[in-house]
């Protein structure tokens, strides 16, 4: 899946939603985490929009950003406006068995 039109200058937090036939999962990343993401790339030449592609090969790299739906508001409210990396992720740690990697 490819998350496009990411504009780093207008948000402190990004919520990526992955939808499959049998599940919906949520990844929460701070602006700083998106900026530091090694697979982030420009969407257009010279533009201000970026994209992140999550595939079967790299989906396990995003496990640390998984959040249970019931915890979305709490997790987002704990992220400081300074965009410091928020390391204390979901206590329940969402389980994902997609491609058998998580």
What characteristics describe this protein?
globular; alpha+beta; 3-stranded antiparallel beta sheet
Structural features, described:
The chain has one domain (2-100). The protein has 2 helices and 6 strands, in the order E-E-E-H-E-E-E-H. The chain has helices at 31-35, 72-78, and strands spanning 2-7, 13-19, 24-30, 41-42, 49-53, 66-67. The strands form 2 sheets. It has a 3-stranded antiparallel beta sheet with strand order 1-5-4, with no helix packed on it. It has a 3-stranded antiparallel beta sheet with strand order 2-3-6. A hairpin with a 6-residue loop joins strand 4 (41-42) and strand 5. The protein is globular and about 40 Å long.
Q: How many beta-strand elements? A: 6
Classify the helix fraction into a percent range.
10-25%
Which oligomerization state do the chains in this entry correspond to? single chain
Q: Which strand order spans the largest sheet, edge to edge or round the barrel?
A: 1-5-4
Low-confidence stretches: 83-102
Supply Rg. Answer: 14 Å
The amount of beta strand, in percent, is 25-35%
Shape summary: globular
Q: Cα distance, first to last residue?
A: 17 Å
Q: Report mean pLDDT, rounded to a whole number.
A: 78
- Total helices: the number is 2
Largest beta-sheet details: 3 strands, antiparallel
Class computed from helices, strands and strand pairing = alpha+beta
Count up the domains. 1
Encode the helix/strand succession as letters.
EEEHEEEH
